[in-house]
Amino acid sequence: MVRPRIRGRILAFLAIAAILGLVSAGMAAMPPALTPIGNQATATYSDASGVTRTVTSNAVITYVQQVAALTLGSPMTKYANPNSQVVFPLVLTNTGNGIDSFTLTAANSGGDDFNFTGIAFYKDANGDGVADDTTPVTSTGNLASGAAFHFIAVAIVPSTPAAGDDGVFTVTATSVHTPGVSATVTEQVTITGNAVINVTKSISQHTAVPTNNITYTLTYTNSGNATATNLTLTDVIPAHLTYVADSGRWSGSGSTALTDDDDVEVPAGISYKYEDGTITVVIASVPVGSGTISFHVTVDAATPPGIIYNLADVA
After folding, report:
1. How many whole angstroms from its chain centre is CA 35?
2. What pLDDT is stored for residue 90 in this prediction?
3. Cis before residue 82, ω within 30 degrees of 0?
4. Residue ranges of domains in the chain
5. Cα 272 from chain centre
């Protein structure tokens, strides 16, 4: 048995709405495109009879031009076996000041050990790292200023690479409004003949109001050629969320609750602990296949509107 070849972080997000609707914070870095900015001058003088008079000039109006901008996340490195596919979750955010769409392209990089036989993009609207359907996309479609487009890149690894070989590809998003504006992220796959663990994180609902009960689910998959041992998952509960005691569940134990204390669980094979705002899970043996860990949180009563990000660490 071998340790899983993975170390990284996975993300889920929760948007908190006000009780009477969504509230938008004043966070724009620039005025929206086509916003009119007017400027008018006044003059005051005294006429021959000593009366003070005021006159106003004509108004001069300037319209704000659209400025394209975007972000595309951070590079990742994943492990894989030959003749497999690797999934990279991505999120593109329109940080420009107007509606824009972005084309998506991928390319193998030079100077590495092998080329991918195919790279395709798929929508992932809820950001759980799983494609919404089987239809590839090459564009985000129109995105309002500040809006995000969640998608995944699926790279096909050929059968020829050997253990230790690296394959690298780039993902580039280009503004349709201003083709000279783009962002590129570099992704890497390292070949191993051992266990390969991938973890995705999902949430029961992406919008909530204070006091709502939310379920987080971590899905782990061993797509490698050997059993992994001592898979460790760590999840720090973010501010404004409260962990629900004894709400942990493991697919290996069905509906049996996992105790929050650091003790032996029933059935054996898993250690689950909640302490000081952190969940720590150690699964002794992960054969080829999938499993899940889930738990509940509630949104604190005084939580202001906004977005709560929840990261989990995998080792």
Report:
1. 31
2. 95
3. no
4. 70-191, 197-314
5. 25
Phi, psi (degrees; rounded to nearest 5) at 50: 85, 10
Confidence at residue 14, expressed as pLDDT on a 0 to 100 scale: 63
Residue 223 CB partners (closer than 8 Å, separation 6+): 80, 81, 84, 196, 198, 288
* 70-191: CATH class: mainly beta
Better-scored residue on pLDDT, 281 or 313: 281
Residue 216: closest CA among 16, 18, 11: 11
Residue range 12-48, pLDDT digits in tens: 656 655 433 333 333 445 777 767 777 778 888 887 8
Closest CA to 310 of 91, 7, 73, 11: 11
User: In this structure, what token pair is assigned to residue 24?
Assistant: 């938008």
197-314, what's its fold?
Answer: Immunoglobulin-like (2.60.40)
pTM: 0.72
pLDDT tens-digit profile of 254-275? 888 888 987 666 667 899 999 9
Q: Return the pLDDT at 141.
A: 96
Q: What share of the chain is helix, strand, coil (3-state, %, to 5)?
A: 0, 50, 50
The pLDDT, as a whole number, for residue 32 is: 79
